[in-house]
Amino acid sequence: MIWMAKNGRDLKPAVYEFPKKLDKETAMLKLETMGISIDKWTDEQERYARAYVEVT
């Protein structure tokens, strides 16, 4: 939430696109506080997923 502390005062009331990296980090931290963990993909799984998206 450092991003919000640094940038929040300059934001006007509206719907904003939250940076993807920070969104993922925030979600992972929340899940961690709830005792939930998500497996990380192996390099092979990531390559497969990227290749699938490129083909479709």
Q: How many extended strands? A: 0
Sheet with most strands: none
Helical coverage, percent range: 55-70%
Query: What is the N-to-C order of secondary-structure elements (H for helix, E for strand)?
Result: HHH
Beta-strand fraction estimate: under 5%
Structural class: mainly alpha
* End-to-end Cα distance: 35 Å
Unreliable stretches: none
Number of domains: 1
Radius of gyration: 16 Å
What's the rounded overall pLDDT mean? Answer: 86
What is the topological layout?
Blueprint: H1 2-7, H2 20-33, H3 43-55
Task: Please describe what this structure looks like.
With 56 residues, this protein is an all-alpha fold. The chain has one domain (2-6, 20-55). The protein contains three helices and no strands. It has helices at 2-7, 20-33, 43-55. It is flat, with a radius of gyration of 16 Å. The model has no long low-confidence stretch (mean pLDDT 86).
What labels describe this entry?
56 residues, mainly alpha, 3 helices, flat
What's this, in brief?
This protein is mainly alpha-helical. The chain has one domain. The protein has three helices and no strands.
